[in-house]
Amino acid sequence: MIKFFLMVNKQGQTRLSRYYEHVEINKRTMLEAEVIKNCLSRSKDECSFVEYKDFKLVYRQYAALFIVVGIDHTENEMAVYELIHNFVEVLDKYFSRV
Amino acid sequence: MPAPIRLRELIRTIRTARTQAEEREMIQKECAAIRSSFREEDNTYRCRNVAKLLYMHMLGYPAHFGQLECLKLIASQKFTDKRIGYLGAMLLLDERQDVHLLMTNCIKNDLNHSTQYVQGLALCTLGCMGSSEMCRDLAGEVEKLLKTSNSYLRKKAALCAVHVIRKVPELMEMFLPATKNLLNEKNHGVLHTSVVLLTEMCERSPDMLAHFRKVRQLSSSQLVPQLVRILKNLIMSGYSPEHDVSGISDPFLQVRILRLLRILGRNDDDSSEAMNDILAQVATNTETSKNVGNAILYETVLTIMDIKSESGLRVLAINILGRFLLNNDKNIRYVALTSLLKTVQTDHNAVQRHRSTIVDCLKDLDVSIKRRAMELSFALVNGNNVRGMMKELLYFLDSCEPEFKADCASGIFLAAEKYAPSKRWHIDTIMRVLTTAGSYVRDDAVPNLIQLITNSVEMHAYTVQRLYKAILGDYSQQPLVQVASWCIGEYGDLLVSGQCEEEEPIQVTEDEVLDILESVLISNMSASVTRGYALTAIMKLSTRFTCTVNRIKKVVSIYGSSIDVELQQRAVEYNALFKKYDHMRPALLERMPVMEKVTTNGPAEIVQTNGETETAVLETKPPPSGLQPTNQANDLLDLLGGSDITPVIPTAPTTKPATAGGELLDLLGDLNLTGSPVPAPAPQIAQPSFLLDGLTSPPLFNDIAAGIPSITAYNKNGLKIDFTFERSNTNPSVTVITIQASNSTELDMTDFVFQAAVPKTFQLQLLSPSSSVIPAFNSGTITQVIKVLNPQKQQLRMRIKLTYNHKGSAMQDLAEVNNFPPQSWQ
């Protein structure tokens, strides 16, 4: 199950956040900061799946923007990876200036 | 009031903020403007304001004052208003807010709206945040929409149905008839959501699962063949621009179908047989050059491993994983390692073939991959490859990140224990781990190691020599120093006598040994526990060494005034050994016997823990009787064995540290000296925190199980003891018994001590009593809490022992309690 979907820029500012499970509003900012810290510290040649607490993060970087999806163990990580790319392609087609 | 700014303006403005404080200021200003606009009940701009509010909410600012506005927007007739209103409802409202119920009527109306887009909005919102009441009310509407021919609505209705089922599982049957035709659609959206719905149903209810698996001869709506057909079409069909992702047709749907097939095929031969072909086809035909193809292959492999597939197919799956491992892409390697980990239990031999690749992954730069490779390597170690694997793993331990070291060390210990080809190799390996990652080794490894060393009798000289050499240079790694000081204490005589068969013996004098132990004692780096070990080791050497006894005496007496309470107590007791009990010293400090391996499951005899925190004299039985699991407190009393206090107990380097009493050696009890003055309140003060940690974690007793009848367990000579029961919600094998002791005679009962013992399948924990005096004439009671762990749900029986002073004489009684009500243990 997808737990959340985040778009965060390199400076840590959240551009988009969607939670599919209830998370307290003050905890959200903390979560986002930690998640982006995890993703920023990874290098280019490391894999895109990070284990974080009790779920996994699948992240993908597009220029200065990180798209991070939190999933639990029942999901296919690679399918989610593709999903992220699909999402970006859809945005691109729809708004034409991504 | 000027028109409120648009959302885009707001976003642009906020982006220009350079600091967090600036941003907060802007947002607060805008929030104030929005609030006043809401108060004015302005219909035209409400939509805009709520949109801005939602954006601010996303950034993390509170936006609860917008909830009612969302409702007003939903009730409006304009589509743009409804759209923002529903979005706001999804983001801001959830079950916890009371206002959400007000939406129910609106949603109901909108579900029957003439425009499909409005219906779609309502379905989305219901499927996102509907509470159980709302779902119950509206499930009928959803079901109706599930049967419509409009594919736009159908797919949304399917997802909404998923949510309804999650909230109210009883409604699942309601959607069953609608699912019959869902898979006949052409529209991929509907197909996808239908598969999700079917997956959810099958996962939630085994009855549904059985229903879907059933072979129905006449109807053509068997689920598995239908899915197989759809999957086949997807693979075989040519290029379809609508659904193409990098050359593969709708991979998301393929993955979903494969997952559903997995659930259907698990543990079911017929279904598995029906899928074998298609799985083989997918596995061989999918293109692997892009990530998409690999994602599908990954799902296929998972499905093959999970269902009852034929062996050819399984081999195919493992080969695919092997190919993944060799791929350059990190993601794929990670995924391969994860799957191999899942399959290593069942297809051990097949995975062994890829062992060398896996071991290579240990050297990868990526943390996630290293972790997976490490876990997998441990799973692959067996008798044949243990030497080679150990070498690799030790090398890995050397170079890996600190977060891995503890796990790696524990893993190495386990593997070494199971597959060690020789004792010497085993000890060498352990030494190696201790020296490379000594500070990361877990606390419970130390007693295990010590026990291992005692058991390999012929290696004592070699072991102690190597340990001595190890700490000569560096005594900062605590577990290493603990093991080393223990061994030196035990086998010091072997060390100085210079007899060692395995290695070149080194010349060590008694003074040198004492030097090193003393420096451990003095060093700032040594933990309190380690110091305890060192002091006891020095003491033991007093019987093993001949010329330096005076030096030992001096050291021991110095620590008699140490600030550390533990050290002080030990030193004083050892001092007493030198002075008053010198005749007992050799017997007490004799060589430790070979210890039996203590398993942590179930004690070998009935034991009990006494919850008293008084500094009671501790009694123990001699070591080989397998003793209580590690989580219980240190005091042991054998009620039924009735053994007398035996002063001749080999000294063990007992530690009562704050680290859990998990040490094997703790169980061998403390030195029992009836005459020794206990200078300071003994470290038993630390006990209460143990006792509360007794069972795994303090269970939460949320409510008293409705009416478990209380019983009178004992009623004699004016003393009555009642038991009341509580069952834990979080842990059904725990029963909490509260005893109340009352006294109906004319004189108080003092020094009341309650003890209990239970059969060996139970575990018992006594907490401290409220007091030790029961006042006369039933004017007060003593309460004490007992926690009983009953994992096998056996009939609860208990034997109790009561001691107290009454009318000037000491009374004692034993009784058995058999009248426990069934609800207290079932």
Q: Which ranges of chain B are low-confidence, i.e. pLDDT below 50, for 5 or more consecutive residues? A: 599-705
| Rg result of chain B | 36 Å
- Sum up the overall morphology of chain B in one term: extended
Total number of beta strands of chain A: 5
Please indicate the percent range of residues of chain A in DSSP E strands (runs of 2 or more).
25-35%
* Main sheet characteristics of chain A: 5 strands, antiparallel
Report the sheet with the most strands of chain B, covering strand number, pairing sense and barrel closure.
Answer: 5 strands, antiparallel
Q: In the CATH hierarchy, what is the architecture of chain A at level 2? A: 2-Layer Sandwich
- CA(first)-CA(last) distance of chain B: 70 Å
Structural class by secondary-structure content of chain B: alpha+beta
Number of helices of chain B: 33
Kindly report the spatial arrangement of strands forming the biggest sheet of chain B: 3-4-5-8-7
Family (chain B): Belongs to the adaptor complexes large subunit family.
Subcellular location (chain B): Cytoplasm, Perinuclear region; Cytoplasmic vesicle, Clathrin-coated vesicle membrane; Golgi apparatus; Membrane, Coated pit
Membrane topology (chain B): Peripheral membrane protein
Keywords (chain B): Coated pit, Cytoplasm, Cytoplasmic vesicle, Golgi apparatus, Membrane, Protein transport, Transport
